[in-house]
Amino acid sequence: MALVTWSQSMSVGIPAVDTQHQSLVELVNRVDEATRAGRSPVELAVVVGELVDAMVAHFRTEQALFAEHAYPGARAQRRLHDDLTSRATTLRAGLAAGRKMITPEVLLYLRDWLRSHIESEGRTFGRFVASTRRVAVA
């Protein structure tokens, strides 16, 4: 069973962002699957690396949209993005060096972060963008 399941109810109404969110859901599930399958730390580092790369690209997209729409929550979101990127990068480095493992707590953190990111922060931003009517919102 997937750690996180994407559904249309998770849509923030911005197609490009929704597509990236779906990719993040898939990657978090891949990290979970690789962990449950007992992959080595080095193998896990590759999957976590893909997740980190996708997160960084996604955060760049969001931050560009924040600037384009003069989003008042941009500074707080940037801090959250920077914190998660730092944590995930540290995890990837620890896995690659064989010093860290992915624990159930790490998986729950990723799940909860992703849900909160999409269902709370993402939706708030999506509603803000819809109110500015500068992009097509689904």
Please tell me about this protein's structure.
The chain is mainly alpha-helical. It has one domain (15-132): Four Helix Bundle (Hemerythrin (Met), subunit A) (Up-down Bundle), CATH 1.20.120. The chain has four helices and no strands. The chain is globular.
Would you tell me the structural class of the helices and strands? mainly alpha
Q: What number is the mean pLDDT?
A: 90
Helix content: over 70%
Chain oligomer state: single chain
Low-confidence parts lasting 5 or more residues at pLDDT below 50? Answer: none
Taken as a percent bin, the fraction of beta residues is under 5%
Number of helices: 4
CATH domain class name: Mainly Alpha
CATH homology group: Hemerythrin-like
How far apart are the first and last residues' alpha carbons, in Å?
29 Å
Task: Tell me the number of strands.
Answer: 0
Strand count, sense and barrel status of the largest sheet are: none
> In the CATH classification, which architecture applies?
Up-down Bundle
Series of H and E elements: HHHH
* CATH topology (fold) name: Four Helix Bundle (Hemerythrin (Met), subunit A)
What is Rg?
A: 15 Å
Please tell me the total number of domains: 1
The backbone outline, from C-alpha atoms, is globular
Describe, in short, the structure shown.
This protein has 138 residues and is an all-alpha fold. 74% of the residues lie in helices and 0% in strands. The chain has a single domain (15-132), classed as Four Helix Bundle (Hemerythrin (Met), subunit A).
